[in-house]
Amino acid sequence: MTVTAPAGFEAAGIAAGIKRTGALDLALIVNRGPSQQAAAVFTSNRAQANPIIWSRQVIADGQVAAIVLNSGGANCFTGPEGFQVTHRTAEAAASALEVSAGDVLVCSTGLIGDQLDGEVLEEGVLSAANRLSAEAQAGADAARAIMTTDTTPKTVVVEGAGWRIGGIAKGAGMLAPGLATMLVVITTDAELEASALDRALRQATRVSFDRLDSDGCMSTNDQVTLLASGASGVVPDEAAFTEALTAACVDLAAQLQADAEGASHDITIEVRGAETEDDAVEVGRSVARNNLFKAAIFGNDPNWGRVLAAIGTTQAPFDPYLVDVSMNGVRVCHAGRPDRPRDEVDLTPRATHVLIELHAGEATATILTNDLTHDYVHENSAYAS
């Protein structure tokens, strides 16, 4: 089960006709309450899609009754007409559900710069409203309806003490942090105020989606939304809820990493011994965004020199000539010098672990990325078609 696992939620996923393939392309998720508290985090890209502009206004009061998500078009850089399409989408949901349009979030994903057909979206929302269900299949359909280049839906359920968290996510490309990444909807039947949800969500995304850096490309449409129905009647300890929410977000982030466009290696970059956590993140991200390193991993080449060259571009305080680097359990570099022979490293498994020990402090952080492949280049060169 997914977003319909927690009590108080209904969902639907339909083929509205946005995608030329006829695949599912519109999802509607509704919070039936009794509470409709919510929080969201958005891309920090200055170029923001119309749904982001709309949803920022909606979430301001911490009240959300429903969220509409479409794939097949980003509705970004589409001018006033595009914003009107977003507004029309929210109005359609509001009319069908008898709620205020100001309580309806809208998310879009797909190609930037193409206009969406407002009539198609409106009819799709009305159709989805007629198919709303709390059944597991409804949540599964919603998860499929938001997919673009994804090859599989991403879902999660985490059990709390008398309450649940459920979630869906999409994302296979343009996965780089900027407060949040990709499209994610998380539901819970725990009873929490919007302020507590916001604190928990920001803590969870900080160590999950913000640590996923697939290709260094930040989207214009990124949004992670948390909806709480309060239907369980249980008010959880905020720390316990944050821990469970973090587990859900980490799980979804790992699923997104595993489905990254064209990837043949899922690379976990663990940085230890940094002076601060921010330093560890900066060092890990410098490697995750280094195309030479990513190409080497694609070729099963444990080229640790590219790791040192990448981390040397950061401002983090450490001595490059004291750094150790291990790949899949083999320390290939010790104190800035060769250690074990490279041919001892087996990079043929998909799971790849890179350990960087800075010896500059006690802080640590882990970044998730993937390799750079021919398939990634081909898929993105042909994306518009």
The unreliable regions are: none
Radius of gyration: 21 Å
Largest sheet: 6 strands, mixed
Distance between the termini: 33 Å
Strand order of the largest sheet: 13-12-11-14-10-15
Report the count of strand segments.
15
**Portion of residues in helices?**
25-40%
* Helix/strand/pairing category: alpha+beta
The number of helical segments is 10
Shape: globular
Name the beta content range: 15-25%
Q: Write down the secondary-structure element order.
A: EEEHEHEHHEEEHEHEHHHEEEEEH
Mean pLDDT rating: 93
What would your notes on this structure say?
The chain has 385 residues and is an alpha+beta fold. Helices cover 31% and strands 23% of the residues. The chain contains 10 helices and 15 strands. A 6-stranded mixed β-sheet has the order 13-12-11-14-10-15. Strands 3-9-8-7-6 form a 5-stranded mixed β-sheet, sandwiched between helices. A 4-stranded mixed β-sheet has the order 1-2-4-5. Helix 2 links the parallel strand 4 (66-71) and strand 5 (104-109). It is globular and about 65 Å long. The chain starts with 8 loop residues before the first strand and ends with a helix.
Question: Could you write a compact summary of the structure shown?
Answer:
This protein has helices at residues 50-58, 79-97, 118-129, 136-145, 194-206, 238-258, 277-288, 291-298, 304-311, 374-381, and strands at residues 9-14, 26-31, 37-42, 66-71, 104-109, 154-159, 164-170, 183-188, 223-228, 266-274, 324-327, 330-334, 337-338, 351-357, 363-370.
